[in-house]
UniProtKB/TrEMBL annotation:
Lineage: Bacteria, Bacillati, Actinomycetota, Actinomycetes, Micrococcales
Alphabetical list of CDD domains matching this protein: NAT_SF (cd04301)
Family: Belongs to the acetyltransferase family. RimI subfamily.
Keywords: Acyltransferase, Cytoplasm, Transferase
Protein's organism: Agromyces mediolanus
Gene3D superfamilies from the UniProt entry: 3.40.630.30
Protein name (Swiss-Prot/TrEMBL): Ribosomal-protein-alanine acetyltransferase
InterPro entries: AcTrfase_RimI/Ard1 (IPR006464), Acyl_CoA_acyltransferase (IPR016181), GNAT_dom (IPR000182), YpeA/RimI_acetyltransf (IPR050680)
UniProt-recorded Gene Ontology molecular function terms: N-acetyltransferase activity
Domain N-acetyltransferase: 3-157
Amino acid sequence: MSVLLRRARPDDLGAIMRLERDTFTDDAWPEDTMRRELASEHGYYLVAVDGETDAAAAPDAVFGYAGLLAPRGSGQGDIQTIAVEPAHRGAGLGRVLMQALIAEARRREAVHVFLEVRADNPVARGLYASLGFTELGVRPRYYRNGVDAVLMRLEVPQTVTRPADARPADPIEETQS
Ligand SMILES: CC(C)(COP(=O)(O)OP(=O)(O)OC[C@H]1O[C@@H](n2cnc3c(N)ncnc32)[C@H](O)[C@@H]1OP(=O)(O)O)[C@@H](O)C(=O)NCCC(=O)NCCS
């Protein structure tokens, strides 16, 4: 099976909401909120689907999704959400989704990307830290069941292209795509 990442479409809403409700049992977004997110001109939502049988009509077609909010010109972005179906976790999909959102934030000229994560979610916190996010502070009892939110920020890295044997101090080309 090949996994394909593509922009979310309005007809992915049902599959996204199934995964949303299964994943965030206490804090799932209402369907109307997710519909607005998918339609927002400032948003960028990706879904991970089976690359061979991609059919949004299939109820279980979406293995994962992630969303960025980054109005052009604001200089900032927010990771709105990310979820990967349990059967597909641990295979690198969450990291690829995050990297794709960060790349889009860079294309929109965001300098910083922010997110909030539950304090009791070491897997997500580990993923974000490994991508360069640092912890800015805590919002006490932010989530419905009294769990703190940890606020994190990434300084969006420039893309740097250099020959494989060049020293890190000698970039030959620096691009902001
Ligand atoms: C967080 C989540 C999206 C990660 O997706 P994933 O596809 O499993 O992640 P990856 O396989 O790309 O792993 C990325 C990193 O996460 C961390 N991680 C993944 N599985 C882990 C585990 N079982 N224990 C500890 N850390 C783990 C590691 O840092 C890992 O990097 P590494 O493989 O280089 O060590 C997924 O676990 C998920 O959907 N969780 C439920 C929803 C959620 O918590 N969303 C975040 C809300 S802020």
